[in-house]
Amino acid sequence: MSVLTLLSGNASTVLAEGVAKLLDGASLTAAKVGRFANGETSVSVGKSVREADVFIIQSGIGEVDTNDAVMEMLILANASKIASAQRVTLVVPYFPYAKQNKIKKRGAIPARLIADMMKVAGAMHVITVDLNPAQMAGFFQIPIDNIMLWPLMTQYVTKQVPDYEKCVLVAKNAGASKRADKLARMLGLDIAMVIDCANEDDFDVATSPGRPRADSGAEPQAAEVAMRTGSIIGKINARCCILVDDVLDVAGPFISAAEALRAGGASRVIVMVTHGVLSGTAPEELQASPCIDEVVVTNTVPQEKHQARCAKLTVIRCEGVLAETIRRVHNDECMSSKFCNQLELA
């Protein structure tokens, strides 16, 4: 059997080190990933990977911005391919450009472009977490494993949320309704949904909830955005509401939804998402919101700096899931059985 070799770019170094510690006999292979003076990405793998089974751990955003993370990942994959690796697998906990998975007028589909670039770079397999929408798997011409963290989410609720049996799972919008329904069924809880609420398109990435996007066209005015707190389908009065979605990027939509829930009589609001991107001033905005009691995310995106800026932030660690996934892929084992059974908080 080929030797399991782990590489990492600069976006997810802490996560990669945590995964390496959980894989017996594996360690992170030294790789020099840097920048030239003109901004170009430079990569050099520290030892031979000939005939090795290479896993490159790199999230789509983190300690470096998205475009740098993508280029580091692609060049690491290509360097491994050129060095005669037997197989190159990209482990991408947060998939870059997933938000742009549909074509718009005079636009493109960047998520499909990233999938194509991965294959061209030399990747033979992709592992990602909570790819949304799941149909994006059809963009890939190579095998992909989309790992869901439902068991970790449900474990957190049952072990950390007081009287969770009285809670209600709330979809932030219609797009999150399947996610909320899945978690509600697993936990045996009721479901509700926020409708006609402000969404990501109403806000600039790095601005506060009160500021609308600067795009031209018929965008809502600041006062209109502030008023769009939405209405509720479902019974939430005097109950703890767990507001779920896949990504928390800008804070505005979640704050608007939380305000709607509080106005509807919710006793407590917990935000629970897989990917805590938390762009711009999102950590401070969440901390300042009186309507949100807790924000629960995983560490598919590095959270150390975010935690320093938002005391409400709780992080569920996913190194165990990723390590077990890598082990199974390396050993050509089945991925269908449930193995997300170890809850660890940061």
Main sheet record: 7 strands, mixed
* Structural class by sheet pairing and helices: alpha/beta
Helix-strand pattern, N to C?
EHEEEHEHEEHEHEHEEHEHEHEH
Alpha-carbon distance between the termini? 35 Å
Helical proportion, percent range: 25-40%
Residue windows where pLDDT falls under 50 for at least 5 positions: 205-228
Number of strands: 14
Arithmetic mean of pLDDT: 88
Radius of gyration (Å): 21 Å
Strand coverage percent: 15-25%
Alpha plus pi helix count = 10
Describe this structure in words.
The strands form three sheets. Strands 10-9-8-11-12-13-14 form a seven-stranded mixed beta sheet. A five-stranded parallel beta sheet has the order 1-4-5-6-7, sandwiched between helices. The chain starts with a strand and ends in a 16-residue tail after the last helix. The protein has helices spanning 13-22, 66-82, 110-121, 150-160, 177-187, 222-227, 252-263, 282-288, 304-309, 319-330; strands at 4-8, 31-35, 41-45, 53-57, 87-92, 125-129, 144-147, 168-171, 190-197, 229-233, 240-248, 268-276, 294-298, 313-316. The relative contact order is 0.13. With 346 residues, the chain is of the alpha/beta class. Helix 1 packs across helix 10, helix 2 (66-82) packs parallel to helix 3 (110-121) and helix 4 (150-160) packs across helix 5 (177-187).
